[in-house]
Write a structure and sequence with these properties.
Elements lengths: L1 H6 L14 H4 L15 H9 L5 E2 L2 E4 L4 E6 L1 E2 L5 E2 L4 E8 L2 E11 L5 E6 L4 E9 L5 E9 L4 E5 L10 H4 L14 H10 L3 E9 L3 H11 L5 E5 L10 H16 L2 E7 L2 H9 L7 E4 L9 E3 L4 H8 L11
Parallel strand pairs: 2-10, 11-12, 11-14, 12-13, 14-15, 15-16
Antiparallel strand pairs: 1-3, 3-8, 4-5, 6-7, 6-9, 9-10
Helix pairs in contact: 5-9, 7-8
Length: 320
């Protein structure tokens, strides 16, 4: 009964706006800031000797709530030396904003971070942050949603990828990892039906750059990506609680209607159950497929795509 209520669009949900993914899919060229010297000579040396490893953490908020977009700037894929006390220029484009708009200039703190407040109407937005000293950059996304938006949520490692990088804490090659056959079609089919797409991964935050590169490499929809803020090692502790907490935020604070979820691990099963998501709409692939009353996906996504996804109703939203 729970699934029937959530899967069939109601008259109220029919008035909600669909995710506006088209507005952020092909950004125009950006005339960014003029390059100027770094404020500190050590920053210049850092940029000469290490590749940039910047990231902008995606945000999703309910309409009427400001988003605080966090940019993290460091260099080096191993040691991640923070870029401190340097200037970053921020731009935004997306729904009702087809061209880039300048947001402002911000200075990194001792953790290499900037915090950018953004208030926008319902829509999807692409945020680009550019370091003034060397013009290196990072991109993230902001989703502003109405309560009740129908959503499909995916774990990544071992769920969309063949390898479970998350379980072993080895992220070498993650940006070009092989996806399960037809996983991309599953995700993109839900987007075409009007569902909000969420990627919830236990990967530590410093793999966010590689995660976004993998999504682009596979041709997946640029949905909301949430990584674990834990940064003290490759395998964050208590993955299940971390996922439970973020699912609670999505359901209670953002007001999403999460109608279907995908995972591969017992931590996924536990987190989904902890927030009351029905087992009948919890799809698990891999060795735990069908465990604890969940719905199994065997081998790859082809049969699932041609049956479950193909018969799924639209999200019942209004295209922008």
């Amino acid at each position: 009964m729970l699934w029937i209520l959530s899967a069939i669009p109601s008259s109220a949900s029919a008035q909600l706006t669909c995710p506006d993914y088209a507005s952020v899919s092909n950004p125009p060229a950006l005339q960014g800031p003029a390059r100027k010297s770094f404020r500190h000579s050590g920053s210049q040396i850092l940029s000469w000797t290490n590749p940039p490893y910047h990231m902008v953490h995606d945000q999703i908020v309910p309409v009427g709530t400001p988003a605080t977009v966090v940019g993290k700037f460091d260099y080096g894929g191993v040691f991640h030396k923070d870029l401190e006390d340097e200037d970053v220029h921020v731009y935004i484009m997306g729904t009702l904003t087809p061209g880039w708009e300048y947001v402002g200039k911000y200075r990194t703190d001792s953790d290499g971070k900037v915090y950018v407040p953004i208030t926008r109407p319902v829509g999807e937005y692409r945020v680009k942050m550019i370091v003034e000293g060397d013009l290196s950059s990072a991109t993230g996304f902001v989703s502003v949603v109405e309560p009740g938006r129908k959503t499909v949520l995916f774990d990544i490692d071992g769920t969309l990828t063949l390898n479970d990088f998350e379980a072993v804490g080895d992220y070498l090659g993650v940006s070009t990892a092989q996806a399960y056959a037809h996983a991309v079609e599953v995700v993109n089919s839900y987007a075409a039906l009007g569902y909000q797409i969420i990627y919830l991964t236990a990967r530590p935050y410093w793999v966010a750059k590689d995660t976004r590169e993998w999504i682009d490499y596979q041709g997946l929809l640029d949905g909301h990506v949430h990584t674990n803020p834990y940064g003290d090692g490759p395998i964050p502790p208590d993955t299940e609680q971390y996922k439970t907490d973020y699912l609670t935020y999505l359901l209670e604070d953002v007001g999403l209607d999460i109608v279907r979820v995908y995972g591969n691990a017992t931590t996924d099963i536990g987190a989904y159950a902890a927030v009351g998501l029905p087992k009948s709409e919890t799809y698990i692939i891999g060795e735990h497929a069908g465990s604890e009353g969940t719905m199994p996906i065997r081998n790859d996504y082809l049969q699932h795509l041609n049956t479950v996804v193909a018969s799924s109703p639209g999200a019942g939203c209004t295209p922008r």
